[in-house]
Fold this sequence. Notes:
Layout: H1 5-17, H2 21-25, H3 35-45, H4 49-71
Amino acid sequence: xxxxxxxxxxxxxxxxxxxxxxxxxxxxxxxxxxxxxxxxxxxxxxxxxxxxxxxxxxxxxxxxxxxxxxxxx
Length: 73
């Protein structure tokens, strides 16, 4: 029995471009993230818990402020 080309080529293509298979086919959580964003997320994930919490705190503040500005403009 022969395997479909996509089963063989998709992992190789994803590896070659350093992206996920979901990204290649345009579906899934990571489909809209570029390589730089994915690398940043991976780097944050590998930080100690305390550092991750500090980063998320600042992200949450910026999101909150941006939403407030939109609501009042």
